[in-house]
Amino acid sequence: MRNNHFESFLMFIFFVSLSMKTAIAQNSTTIPVNVGVILNLDVGFDKMVLSCIKMSISDFYSVHGDRYKTRLVLAARNSRQDVVGAAAAGLDLIKNVEVEAILGPPTSMQANFVIDMGAKAQVPIISFTASSPSLSSLRSPFFFQATQNDATQVKAIRDIVKAFRWREVVPVYVDNEFGGGIIPFLTDALQAVDVRVPYRSAISSTATDDELGEELYKLMAMQTRVFIVHMSPSLGSRLFIKADEVGMMGPGCVWIITDGLADFWSSMNSSVVDSMQGALGVQPYVPKTKELTSFRNRFKRKFVHDNPNIVDADLNVYGLWAYDAITALAMAVEKAGTTNLGFQKPNVSSNSTDLENFGLSLSGLNLLQALSDTSFKGLSGNFSFVNGQLKPSPYEIINVNGDGARGIGFWTAENGLIRKLNTPTNNTTSTYSTSNSSLAPIMWPGETTYIPKGWEIPTNGKRLRIGVPVDSDFAEFVKVRKDPTTNSSIVEGYCIDVFEAAVKLLPYALPFDYFPFELPDGRSAGTYNDLVYQVYLGNYDAVVGDTTIRLNRSNYVDFTLPYTESGVSMVVPVKDINNKNAWIFLKPLTWDLWFACFCFFVFIGFVIWVLEHRINEEFRGPFFFQVGTSFWFSFSTMVFAPRERLVSNLARFVIVIWCFVVLILTQSYTASLTSLLTVQKLQPTVTDVKELIRTGAYVGYLQGSFVLGLLKNLGFDESKLLVYRTLEEWDALFTKGSGNGGIAAAFDEVPYINLFLAKYCSKYTTVEPTFKTDGFGFVFPKDSPLVSDVSRAILGVTEGETMKKIEEEWFGKEASCPDPGTSLSSKSLGIESFWGLFLITGGVSVLALIIYLVVFIHEQWDVITSPDYKSLRQRAVALFWNFYNRDFSAHTIRRNEVNDQQIQLNETVVGEPSPSAYSVQTEFLGEQDRVSSENDDRNSNDQQQLQETLLNSPAIQNHERPRVTEIMQD
């Protein structure tokens, strides 16, 4: 048994020896590839990076050594924190060491010159710390930015600013290549979401604490309270300590740090972290994996072993990018091959400079292509180059709180702000969010949870300088007077009270002082446009007064919401027309409506005559009698029921419709006339602007008002425009009249008109049209954060009782005058209001005539076809006379004739008129019983005698006997 164990041990030793010999044989066949590294080896951070690079080479070849023939050989150089030192190190590595690639240098300024040398020698330059966007690979294809480009993180910062609706931001950055490179991209990103950058705070990298304090005090004197800090950790730490000392880390301030600081927060000492409490930061997100945790533990042991003098060394994302960058280079070198290693010597003269004396890398193009195609999952996440730049990764948003930084959310290019990164179960979400609700609760500076508004009035800065007009023509709006004791200016008026009432509603104190816009002698220093322009020039912080919101002014300043009525109207004198016009009864209707009514009365009379004259004795007789009866009947429907009775159903139908039309006409006339006589007591003397222009009348306007330009645009001759300054001058011009050096109308803004009418309400009124304007507003600089707050405060004033009290104080209580916003009018009723009724009446009447004509032709068809008439003229004459004469076949005519004959016989036999002679002509013979009852003294023989006499009368014996017989039989 012992022999067996011994033999097994010998076999193990044999195989180990064989493996070692094989490994030695393999190592002897590997090809070294020189790679340069440029770092600031005097700084602990760069030492951390160098340790990561060495560990990466060791880890990579321990795993892939049996498959890779190439081996990276590091040649490290110290840039000594200097641009020239970095350039010298790069020149040495390319010319003397002939490296195939260079990692570094660490800063953007140092990398700038080294990149140009790499491009000339076709040596790839890979930087994992130089993040300036100005070092774009588009400028040099041999530069690979193995770090997140600063142009990427500005998008995350932009969305944070947008999420909290901050309108102004001040970037605070180091004044070098690293700091200035991000500013154009940051400014463009902020302007894309309407965020202003009113000031850029560029701080020298060598600034002293006093210089830092001076710059911070300058920031404190500004309104903006949102600061974006982009600088190195050493300068940034000093800045925050100083900001905490001067009181700029309290409530209301917002500090956002870029990854240049956020990636180093864990390595900062406790005093710096304490001064940064409440700051927000963005840093590239590194997934937490088992490999990363294992590497962190090994790194600490390795770094402490190599650098025993450095305590509490911390690994950050730059070390991980360095680790992954050397891994990518090792893979690319193997992929590029070893056939073209080396440099092609330059063909230069002996007296050439060192910059012209280094060669050209033969493997540069192959290595360039291999690096571009390299992709793997490293410690920092997915690692690959896109156009020479590291593929963007999500950013984590942190909030410095307590002893460290707390993650409050993430930002991705696809989803914007999100609380958690998408998991495989919900990775289909594609909504882009810029809402602050997507972030966890934040502890802001000053240990407050309230979202800062991003600006405030500086308490230790200047008070607001508010300009006011001194030459306001209406003292009720703005009045400036001198205090006789102190000789100081006292500003008061309606506009002043509204502004001060609005300021009281602001959630913060707003200190200000009024400054009259005047010359040394007390006269106005210019027009209202000049006053507004002073805000644009920065001489005033605001303007309070009767300043109208105008488009041309808004190009230079911003206005609050208007606090007065808007518009420009025309004011004219009024005249009393009640009971002073003998023909006022004609005014309710226009002349075309009067004419239309007359025509229809005539037409209806004609229609009724046509339908009734053949069958109704009321419409028969001499020609002029028939005409008079017809028109009398038609016109009498307007006031009372006609005496004449209608027997035709067609005529009755026409009259029913016509009476309805007459009812509406008379009621409308009555209402309009009543209004003229009782309600409308005053009438404007002028109602049309075009009439003023046509007649060349003089009109007035307020001195210095923009209304002058409006009147010119309307077409008024400038020589016809007169100016006034006060209410009294305004009234005096009206009193003189247009022909005597005065005016016929005046144009002004509604607030001034209301004040004028409050004093002269019985003499003047406003008429249309009203030209639109936006009323009075307060003036502030462009994009001033005060505009929105003061506008909301104005709404609080106008919607409450405060505005009513202010108006009563300066304008008095509302008088019982006509509403100045209502335009008086004396328009009469026109035909356009009744043409539908006339159309219906005319249609019904024409239809009745057509029906009557058809029936008449049908009845007279035997006349039309009779052979007795030889010509068409004879037939027409016969038809006309048949149409004009009675229709004896109508039952109304037959009964009337018999009744007339009976009355005549009664008068002949009895010798006295029968009472029935006074009865209506259309009574029927069947009512004879009533006649007999009225003549009880007559016997039955009289009735027999009456009948015989009627039958033997000459008229009946000629041609009407059969009809009478029929009547008698009936």
Automatic annotation (TrEMBL):
Q: What is its main location?
A: membrane
Keywords, A to Z, come to:
Disulfide bond, Glycoprotein, Ion channel, Ion transport, Ligand-gated ion channel, Membrane, Receptor, Signal, Transmembrane, Transmembrane helix, Transport
Polar residues compositional bias: what residue ranges?
A: 941-956
The segment(s) forming the Ionotropic glutamate receptor C-terminal domain are 463-813
Q: Which Pfam families match?
A: ANF_receptor, Lig_chan, Lig_chan-Glu_bd
Q: Where is this region: Disordered?
A: 928-970
The SS bond pairs are C761-C817
Q: Which Gene3D superfamilies match?
A: 1.10.287.70, 3.40.50.2300, Periplasmic binding protein-like II (3.40.190.10)
GO cellular component terms attached to this protein's record: membrane
Tell me which positions the record assigns to the signal sequence: 1-25
Which SMART domains does UniProt cross-reference here?
Answer: PBPe
Please report the record's description of how this protein sits within the membrane. Multi-pass membrane protein
Question: Does Ion transport appear among the keywords?
Answer: yes
Q: Read off the InterPro entries from this record.
A: ANF_lig-bd_rcpt (IPR001828), GABAb_receptor_plant_PBP1 (IPR044440), Glu/Gly-bd (IPR019594), Ionotropic_Glu_rcpt (IPR015683), Iontro_rcpt_C (IPR001320), Iontropic_Glu_rcpt_pln (IPR017103), Peripla_BP_I (IPR028082)
Gene Ontology MF terms in the entry: ligand-gated monoatomic ion channel activity
Biased composition (Basic and acidic residues) is annotated at 928-940
Q: What does the annotation say about its assembly with partners?
A: May form heteromers.
Q: State the family it belongs to.
A: Belongs to the glutamate-gated ion channel (TC 1.A.10.1) family.
Q: What's the protein name? A: Glutamate receptor
